[in-house]
Design brief:
This protein has eleven helices and two strands; from the N terminus they run ααααββααααααα. The chain is mainly alpha-helical. It has one domain. Belongs to the binding-protein-dependent transport system permease family. LivHM subfamily.
Length: 290
């Protein structure tokens, strides 16, 4: 029983980490209808900027937690205003090609600036302790991640479903001309949401770095996991993304403990079964047409 509890807590913390890494991608697709394949790159940039801050500049994890997402937000703003905006009327294919190309550009730039060595960020002293639960000792940082994931999920659900901005954006997706006639600058709202997605990606990069580390191709591995979570939960659904993150986190953790060679197979198997049972995902909606 103690082993099961330990694996459950570890799986839950990993699931919340997956949610923090994926929620920005889910938000942008759910509200803007844009599948941002450069999301993993924004996460990677947040991680490397945090590394530079904690090793070269202030040596403060908390400063990195604030500054790195803001740096990624500026990059996201530039991408949306100069490149992505022109694709809104062209459909999903142009957006996929553009953002996937940007991912490779960021990959090469990151290697040029920070090199190809495996790097890491130390857990801040305030969160470096451990906590005893049910006779087991767990790192405090992992438990904090569980709380962070829950708070982020609640905030995004409230934004998407209970705010005036959420209503405006949903209406703008259906009829941009009507929203414009009401005097609402839907382009500004879309930009703000994409920048928020970038902030979440950068935040996820900082939070995940002490556990997952920094290494070459980290953005593509993160993107694959994020897409799996999105497909299982339902493209664009924050609640679905949260549910899928927990399922994938638990399955991956227990899979590595019971069947180490089959852990990824189990995750892809779960995705296949969900798609057969519910093609739109657990809590998904119909994909927005471009």
């Amino acid at each position: 029983m103690e082993v099961i509890i330990a694996q459950f807590i570890n799986g839950l913390s990993y699931g919340m980490l997956l949610f923090v890494l994926t929620c920005g991608l889910a938000l942008v697709f759910g509200i803007l209808g844009v599948l941002n394949l450069a999301h993993g790159s924004l996460y990677m940039i947040g991680s490397y900027v945090a590394y530079s801050i904690t090793t070269t500049f202030t040596q403060s994890f908390w400063t990195a937690l604030v500054v790195a997402p803001l740096v990624v937000a500026v990059i996201a703003l530039i991408i949306e205003r100069t490149l992505l905006r022109v694709t809104y009327r062209l459909g999903h294919l142009s957006q996929v090609l553009l953002t996937f190309g940007l991912a490779y550009v960021f990959h090469d730039l990151t290697k040029l600036i920070w090199g190809s060595n495996v790097l890491s960020i130390r857990v801040p002293d305030l969160l470096s302790g451990s906590v005893s639960l049910a006779g087991q000792t767990f790192p405090l940082y992992r438990l904090v991640i569980i709380g962070v994931g829950v708070v982020v999920a609640a905030g995004l659900w409230w934004l998407q479903n209970k705010t005036r901005w959420g209503a405006i954006i949903r209406a703008g997706l259906s009829d941009r001309e009507m929203i414009g006639a009401l005097g609402i600058n839907i382009n500004f709202v879309f930009t703000a949401i994409f920048v928020l997605g970038g902030i979440l990606a950068g935040f996820g990069g900082v939070v995940a770095s002490p556990i997952l580390g920094l290494y070459p191709d980290m953005e593509f591995q993160t993107l694959i996991l994020a897409l799996i979570v999105l497909v299982i939960g339902g493209l664009g659904s924050i609640a679905g993304t949260f549910t899928a993150s927990v399922l994938v986190g638990l399955l991956e953790t227990f899979g590595r403990y019971l069947f180490p060679e089959l852990s990824m197979f189990l995750i892809f198997g779960l995705m296949a079964m969900i798609l057969v049972w519910r093609p739109n995902g657990l809590l998904g909606k119909q994909v927005v047409e471009g």
